[in-house]
Amino acid sequence: MSRAFYNLNSENRWVFIRTDSLAALFSASLGAYLVYSGSATASDTGFSLSMAVGFSSYILYAVRMFNEFEVSGNSLERIQQYMEIEQEEKPTENGVPPAYWPASGDLKVEKLSARYSSDGPRVLENVSFEVKSGERVGIVGRTGSGKSSLTLALLRCILTEGRVYYDGLPTDQINLDALRSSVTIIPQVPELLSGTLRQNLDPFGQYDDAVLNDALRSAGLFSLQNDSDESRITLDSQIASGGSNLSVGQRQILALARAILRQSKLLILDEATSAIDYATDAVIQASLRREMVRGVTVLTVAHRLQTVMDADKIMVLDAGRIVEFGKPTELLENKNGMLRALVEESGDKASLLAMAAGHGAQSSV
């Protein structure tokens, strides 16, 4: 703040010195001309000199007006750029899906490539995979491997090439509002609206309190607080703007409760539990395994390997490509595999291998 104020005063002094110098030079020149030319009367000379003295203020005013005009012109240019910005496709009658859609969480991706701008590099390169309805798929990879970009590409939030089939229909032929309303995504830091918890869970008043409480219980909120606690969260609890009066873990649980209420066939968790403690993460993952089993496909972008090691399948991304995709037990058998390398680098190698082996044995049974 002090540096900006110092620069402002310095620039003002720079302008004042030069305008005063120009005014003084002009006044002196005019006075010399009027005195030595002898063609002007005393009254004309006095009037001319008095007007010349105020010339500096007129110069400064002209400079300020020109600067104001230039700034206003920049604002108009910026408004024009916003008006010409590329818009998403508008809904059409041909893009309305059938009333039964989506009936399942089947997801099929064929040679999907994506980029953030038309002239930018590809962040995904010929990604192809298939997920059956009800499967839990973990998406792992190092930083910059394209995990979050994949979730954005599935929702057509970035420029994509290739085909994505959701419950048998290509998503590029479906209206964006229909596609995104049928998919639930829980981001890393979910946003909440100011108001009561009831308004955040059910803003349109479609469900009664019993259903809302069941969703909160299924999401694991009640397992993290006691009934005797006066500060426990209820449907009448006030939520600040953005959920700033709640912890990140509580916001994640509320976002999961909203997902349970929506009953979408495709649920995407974009590193939703990376900023919370392990105990809360375990509660959320247990709720997902318990509630999301009725034909709901769950894609989990993982920050912790513990989050996805018991998934049905694991997808390993590297530089925007799929390098491994399959059951955790099968991928861990490859000693030179990337998932095996990530497990080896983890400090919980033994527990991760035990989780994968336990889930593999349970699946075979």
UniProtKB/TrEMBL annotation:
CDD domains: ABCC_MRP_domain2. One of its GO terms (cellular component) is membrane. GO terms for molecular function: ATP binding; ATP hydrolysis activity; ATPase-coupled transmembrane transporter activity. Its main location: membrane. It is found in: Membrane. The chain crosses the membrane at residues 21-39. Residues 107-344 form the ABC transporter domain. Keywords: ATP-binding, Membrane, Nucleotide-binding, Transmembrane, Transmembrane helix, Transport. It is a multi-pass membrane protein. It holds the Pfam family ABC_tran. PANTHER family: ATP-BINDING CASSETTE SUB-FAMILY C, ATP-BINDING CASSETTE TRANSPORTER ABC4. This is ABC transporter domain-containing protein. It comes from Fibroporia radiculosa.
